[in-house]
Amino acid sequence: MHPVMEHDTLDLDLLQVPEPSAIREWATERGILILAHSYQDGFLQEAAHFVGDSLELARKAAAADAKSICFCGVHFMAETAKLLSPEAKVFVPDLEAGCSLADSCKAEDLKQYQQHLTEKLGQRPTTVAYVNCSAAVKALCDIICTSGNAREVVESIPDDQPILFVPDKHLGGWLNETLGREMILWNGACEVHELFSVETLNEMKAEYPAAKVISHPECPKPVRDASDYVLGTAGMLRLVKGSHGETFIVGTEANMIYRFEKEAPQNTYLAAPGASCACNLCPYMQMNTPEKLWHELNVQANEVTIPSELFADAQQSLQRMLSIV
Ligand code: 13P
Ligand code: SF4
């Protein structure tokens, strides 16, 4: 296998990309750990040493003693890996792979809103941030949560303490409903999950009356209410692995179905429909391709770094989360 040449004008389409298992072995020999989120396409999932949800990947990064981590996911996930594995060089196939939810909450705006709420409430609210946010936002927060531990994190905060939850209004709304809290919600949303439509979902349910609907808490309330289960991606995987001969309508990023079919092939999976299109692939996750992965493994140019003035505060918010669940 010939490593690619380090060259600015390299045409990624012309790259001879090895098979996923060969890429993984090649990386192992060089002390590179490849992590991939379950929303990555099948090739990238197969090339990775470990595939998981945001929480599992954060834990994996915290425990890693690899000298470098190639993170196949979006930017905030790679930042999390860097914060939890500061000694490792963390790099990504595409530095432009962001997240609409993370983009909806800018640190300057959050800081102003925190000040405004402190004056209005006469006390500083605890800020809980969904992990889908920048390191600068993490540094302004008290504690982080993921879709896999959000309930436990919020429940760890005393009932009488005001909470500001950022940036996802849908996940926050679901937590308020199910935990009986009245957290103040930031007005952010994921552009992928927001496009699921209850009207087309109901049409699909009528067509497959025995099917169970599983949806991510980032989905809007009408879609959550029409679902049998509202779960983060790791919870979904546990559910389908423990089910046999079921049909599931899946209300999350469609690459999740690759993992379900691989790890729980005993069931049938149908992607929940969007309002007018099959737009349930995350455009940011899809920016990572086999060619970019192979190129980046060779050149390690897209390094993810955290400004030193943010590092300790952002790391502390994440460590508080990991100390709870
Ligand atoms: P998980 O927390 O389930 O991994 O989801 C991450 C995400 O980006 C959902 O859109
Ligand atoms: Fe962000 Fe939504 Fe993509 Fe998840 S699916 S990474 S929340 S844009």
Could you explain how this protein is built, in words?
With about 325 residues, this protein is of the alpha/beta class. It contains 15 helices and twelve strands. The chain has helices at about 20-30, 40-45, 55-65, 75-85, 100-105, 105-120, 135-140, 150-155, 170-180, 200-205, 220-225, 235-240, 255-265, 290-300, 310-325; strands at about 30-35, 50, 70, 90, 125-130, 145, 165, 185, 210-215, 230, 245-250, 270. Helix 3 runs parallel beside helix 4 (about 75-85) and helix 12 runs parallel beside helix 13. It is globular, with a radius of gyration of 20 Å.
Short account of what is shown:
With 325 residues, the protein is α/β, with parallel strands linked by helices. The protein is built from 15 helices and 12 strands.
SSE string, helix = H, strand = E?
HEHEHEHEHHEHEHEHEHEHEHEHEHH
Bound molecules: 1,3-dihydroxyacetonephosphate, iron/sulfur cluster
Shape: globular
CATH architecture of the largest domain: 3-Layer(aba) Sandwich
- Percent of residues in helices comes to 40-55%
Low-confidence stretches: none
What spatial order of strands do you see in the largest sheet?
2-1-3-4
CATH secondary-structure class of the largest domain: Alpha Beta
Spatial separation of the terminal alpha carbons: 42 Å
Overall domain count:
3
Report on the biggest sheet.
4 strands, parallel
Strand content: 5-15%
Q: What is the residue-averaged pLDDT?
A: 94
| The CATH superfamily title of the largest domain | NadA-like
Radius of gyration: 20 Å
* Structural class based on helices, strands and sheet pairing: alpha/beta
Report the strand count: 12
